[in-house]
Amino acid sequence: MMIKLTSFxxxxxxxxxxxxxxxxxxxxxxxxxRQSAWSDGLVFFAIKGKNHDAHQFIINLYEKGVRVFVVExxxxxIKEFHDASFIVTSNSIAALQKTAAYCRRLFTSPVIAxxxxxxxxxxxxWLADIIGQVLPVVRSPKxxxxxxxxxxxxLKLHEKYKMAVFEAGISMPGxxxxxxxxxxxxxxxxxxIGEAHSENFRDDDVKTMEKLHLFRNSKKVVFHYDDELIRKxxxxxxxxxxxxxxxxxxxxxxxxxxxxNVNRRESSTVLSVSFEGKDHxxxxxxxxxxxxxxxxxxxxxxxxxxxxPQIIAKGLENLTAVAMRMELKSGINNCKLIEDxxxxxxxxxxxxxxxxxxHKGRNxxxxxxxxxxxxxxxxxxxxxxxxxxxxxxxxxxxxxxxxLVRNKILFDDAFKFYESTDAFISDFKQSDFRNDIILLKGxxxxxxxxxxxxxxEQIHQTVLxxxxxxxxxxxNVFRNHLHPGTRMMAMVKxxxxxxxxxxxxxxxEYQRVSYLAVAYADEGVELRNAGVSLPIMVMxxxxxxxxxxxxxxxxxxxxxxxxxxxxxxxxxxHGLVGYPIHIKIDTGMHRLGFMPGECxxxxxxxxxxxxxxxxxVFSHLAGSDDQALxxxxxxxxxxxxxxxxxxxxxxxxxxxxxxxxxxxxxRFPQYQFEMxxxxxxxxxxxxxxxxxxxxxxxYMTRISQVKKIAAGEPVGYGCADxxxxxxxxxxxxxxxxxxxxxxxxxxxxSLFINGERLPIVGNVCMDMCMVDVTGTGAKSGDEAEVFxxxxxxxxxxxxxxxxxxxxxxxxxxxxxxxFYTQ
Length: 822
Known about the structure:
Elements: E1 5-6, H1 7-14, E2 17-19, E3 25-26, E4 28-30, E5 42-45, H2 58-64, E6 68-71, E7 85-88, H3 92-106, E8 111-115, H4 120-131, E9 137-139, H5 149-154, E10 163-167, H6 175-183, E11 187-190, H7 204-212, E12 220-224, H8 228-235, H9 238-241, E13 244-249, E14 257-264, E15 269-275, E16 278-284, H10 289-304, H11 309-317, E17 326-330, E18 336-339, H12 346-357, E19 363-369, H13 378-392, E20 396-400, H14 402-406, E21 416-418, H15 421-427, E22 436-441, H16 449-455, E23 463-467, H17 468-479, E24 487-491, H18 493-497, H19 501-510, E25 515-518, H20 521-529, E26 536-538, H21 546-551, E27 555-558, H22 561-573, E28 579-584, H23 599-607, E29 612-618, H24 630-651, E30 656-658, H25 662-667, E31 675-676, E32 697-702, E33 705-709, E34 714-715, E35 721-722, E36 727-732, E37 750-753, E38 756-761, E39 769-772, E40 783-787, H26 793-799, H27 804-809, E41 816-821
Parallel strand pairs: 4-5, 5-6, 6-7, 8-10, 8-11, 9-10, 11-12, 12-13, 13-14, 18-22, 19-20, 19-22, 20-21, 23-41, 24-25, 24-31, 25-26, 26-27, 27-28, 28-29, 29-30
Antiparallel strand pairs: 1-3, 2-7, 14-15, 15-16, 17-18, 17-41, 23-32, 32-40, 33-36, 34-35, 36-39, 37-38, 37-40, 38-39
Helix pairs in contact: 3-6, 4-10, 4-11, 7-8, 10-11, 12-13, 23-24
């Protein structure tokens, strides 16, 4: 925040009632209990949603040292928090927005705001990079453009910055009015109007008008004149057309900026632009249509901001692709590696560090380059970095760059500094990194890809990419189908359905699910060793596992009297009282579980056992995704309700009940009870019944070789594929040992290469397959998708006469998993 406040000041800004000390300092804001890298001077805004309530984390944050809270209700324990300030308000999100709006009013330098359906994050990043050559710029972290993200971005304003660039997005009517009051931009930029969130607006005209509300008080507006929809609404609106309009067009004399010529080359483009009677030539390192238009929008905005054309030209020529994701990869010596070396600015560093420290169970390491476009005094800038490292508890730091070397006195003496990436590589030893979580954060010019190659686990180039943001989205899709207060037990068994359990479990813990479920005890132990602290239910505990489970605080599914006896014996041996167990009822699927007729005896035995306590009773639906079996689903639910009621009557205390899997959540809301148990739906597969689930996994590889095969020559084992014409065949390093089914060969299956589905020819081999790429221009190194956005996993499963579960779980551990956030 640009100024230091007290708890009393903050209560006045948001109009809330203050309880507790008036003089508690407020220097920064947090809305997520897991994102707090430190506690001194933090104020926590406890936000309550339909299926989550951050008020439950107040005690935890108080124990961490947070002493100022903005809440919608007082917690019962307030008398115990005598040294904490609580500000009660009717709406915590509105209070956060008022706080941000207050800080915005104190900021006197220009503010640029970018909105639109697509491209706004890229334009925002490029603007900050170009202007950052001559001015200190603050920008929104990545795509922080929501009702919460925008105020969090604006709260980063400080007098040390001489320009601010924010982005703003909306998904519902009325939202832009809130954001306008927070950002109140001097220069407004609109990129385009597309399909995103169209379902919530009557038509594109309404959506366009909503977005343009952002520019109500702006002095200047930037837009593409050739976009008929946007042009119409700007020129037909009296207030907007009277502003200083900076439009650009490919048509002469149509707009203020005329793009006279676009000369595309193989990997770059030269733009000839005319502005106010002067011609300018700009070179950009891209040739695709979207990047060209985003570059022109960025250049036009720079003209509007009064940036010198030579600075614009230099900035455009040095643009880099905006990395919309942070990748988490497996590294050497059991390390994990976070790659985020495309964005280099202090704001994105804070965000990346929060991602780093959210991964528990490993020593945290930060490898950072100089900031190349900060335009701020070095001692001030790197002093902030040193403070961030100290507060975040990062164990090791490596600084690369001459500026960091010059300022190493600001850091701990144990940290290491190098003037260049090559100098670090010369001193690199693999043994220095073991069981660490390492964040690589640097400017493109420092070529941190070289460091990544040293630190990455060297596995063949076939990889399974997992989009953590898509998983978080899917979790929230299911939450939106739940009644308030319904809990969620997320399934991470079978290597998290092939995705990788520790990373997924950490994300689910971050997303505040109530429980995790694994199949076997060793899966639970792996999660505990990775630092996962959520309650974990083990669904198939084997006879030898009770002691192991107790040592690792894993909770067993009890499905038979034999399993009950084993756990009673172990719990007594360990001297336990009330150890949590989960009772499985067989309501008709006839796998593991007590039959309903056994539950009276079961309940009476547990009632007499002090060492164990039932925390949940559950069953499993056999056909929740099949409408033809709805009668059976209702029958199972009826048996479950009667049996669980009988158990509760006998043991004499309440417990959680859970019956619904992914498809059950979507189709049978009346059976949610106290908890639900989504599995395959979290990973974007299975029957979704129209729910907006996102694809989370993309299985891809790269072509190893392309060779010409003459007519009449066979391909593969058994000489099974012969053609009557010459053809080009690509050899791709993925085979049935990698989960690519053998029956997908001989043109039954296909891979997606260079924008086309191309047939797999010949028999699939153990470690590779062959693809007909005739006439496509495919070459060695080109990407090949096995399944993902272009080849749905459900389609692959259907070709193999199986289900998506089997396809996902068939991808072996030898295939590297790459986790990323956008």
